[in-house]
Amino acid sequence: MPDDDLLVLAPYIRIGVQDRTLFLGFGSIRQAVLDRKLWHPLVRLADHFRHGRTRAEALSFLRVTCDVDESTAQASLLMLEHGHCLIPARAYDPGDRYSRHSLFYTLSGASPEHVQARLEASHVVLIGCGGIGNLVAVTLATAGVGALTLVDADRVETSNLTRQFLFTEADVGSLKCEVLAREIGRRNSECRVRSLPVLVEDRAGLRGLPESDLILLSADSSGLTRLVNSHSVAAGQPWMNACYVNDVAVWGPLVVPGLTGCWDCRTLAASAPEEDPELAALIADVNARYQAPSNGPVNMLASSLAALDALRHLGGFGVPASLNRRMGVWSHELMLDGQSAQRALSCPTCSHVTHES
């Protein structure tokens, strides 16, 4: 019998009873089973699948050994299959570098081999290697993204060490992109990392960056957001923003030209009133002194959620939360917020763009 025909219970499956309900799996795949006549067949079938079995063997086990009627046997097996509870017998290798991620992709209903191959073939350009860039870069690299280009002209400062965790006191004064590249190489030597210590501040600077599958912007300059957006839309290149607004961890929108809205489709950030130059000048004077209250945990929230969406997009599993939305976690109130970034047919930047699959 070919091993490919054998199924086993996925390692992430747990079973429990609460409030007179049997829960088969937890998290997004949780199935609540109220019908008690299914409890014993389901649990016995799950136990049976701790070793490799075919579907035919499983149904025979329920009918013969458990004395279960045909409809109950079929319903029990379907519940395990539809809930992503069963995986091919050889799909999980605990010794593989990406084995735990593979379980996550399976949990999402995707083929781990397909996802990992897509990630390995991907190239991400990361503009900004600070608090968010640090963690996004190492998350993507250790997940198996094949190539990263790190763009940042800044040097490590002592005040960075509260949140830019891949830097140490010994790195103060060194270029951020070079230190980050070094640290990524220590964690996944298979990731091809290039550091570019340049300040990107205009279209020429963006055009000088290498082609990639995704631009992830995590730099401080607010004016750079619209610049990256217009560049990416014109080049047909997906991009995503990740930042924080005081206590709010922000990521998105994930812009896929021709498929989603872009930064200019909706008003996503406050600005000075163009119709009142005097007030606009005063606002500019006040804002010139702004210093962001950057905080490690808020940075980590934005970084991890942006990295997860980047992996979803690059790996082709699940649905990125920031597609057509700018997402935010308000850390003081622990509240999830979302701004619509749906495509506007009148958008001057992207209305003319069509998607090419």
UniProtKB/TrEMBL annotation:
> Matching Pfam families, A to Z?
ThiF (PF00899)
SUPFAM superfamilies in the cross-refs: Activating enzymes of the ubiquitin-like proteins
Q: Which residues form a coiled coil?
A: none
Under the heading Gene3D superfamilies, the entry gives: 3.90.930.70, NAD(P)-binding Rossmann-like Domain
What InterPro entries has UniProt attached to this entry? Answer: ThiF/MoeB/HesA, ThiF_NAD_FAD-bd, Ubiquitin-activating_enz
Positions of the THIF-type NAD/FAD binding fold domain? 112-326
Instruction: Write out the entry's keywords from A to Z.
Output: Nucleotidyltransferase, Transferase
**An example molecular function term from Gene Ontology annotations:** nucleotidyltransferase activity
* Full protein name: ThiF family adenylyltransferase
